[in-house]
UniProtKB/TrEMBL annotation:
Domain called Importin N-terminal: residue spans: 45-99
InterPro entries: ARM-like, ARM-type_fold, Importin-beta_N, Importin_beta
A single cellular component GO annotation: cytoplasm
PANTHER family to which the protein is assigned, alphabetical: IMPORTIN BETA
Single annotated GO MF: small GTPase binding
Organism of this sequence: Prolemur simus
Name by which UniProt lists this protein: Importin 5
């Protein structure tokens, strides 16, 4: 459990570095982010979005990154997840929308849910 918390803390630092005005730091953070496996990205991003004690900028960045992941790499990531994890992601997004108090953040989370739904509708019948 401590290892997972440490990894999540590292991910928050990475989110902060992705927002850095320093091009070198930001570029290094982008390379690190790209090397994280898709399923781990989804887990870390959802945890960051859900964490209302995290910096608002980091939460917003996590929301944008999760939406981008679902729009650009959906076919590589989502269908490979176990069905119980897929169900958990859908449930988690709906719960976060209900619990979110910041309207700008709620809109970003709704955008994620809409992107997920768009991709799920687009899945060929043989996969869905």
């Amino acid at each position: 459990m401590a290892a997972a918390a440490a990894e999540q803390q590292q991910f928050y630092l990475l989110l902060g570095n992705l927002l850095s005005p320093d091009n070198v730091i930001r570029k290094q953070a982008e390379e690190t982010y790209e090397n994280i496996p898709g399923q781990s990205k989804i887990t870390f991003l959802l945890q960051a979005i859900r964490n209302t004690t995290a910096a608002e900028e980091a939460r917003q960045m996590a929301a944008v990154l999760l939406r981008r992941l679902l729009s650009s790499a959906f076919d590589e990531v989502y269908p490979t997840l176990p069905s119980d994890v897929q169900t958990a992601i859908k449930s988690e997004l709906l719960m976060i929308i209900q619990m979110e108090t910041q309207s700008s953040m709620r809109k970003k989370i709704c955008d994620i849910a809409a992107e997920l739904a768009r991709n799920l509708i687009a899945i060929p019948a043989s996969l869905g």
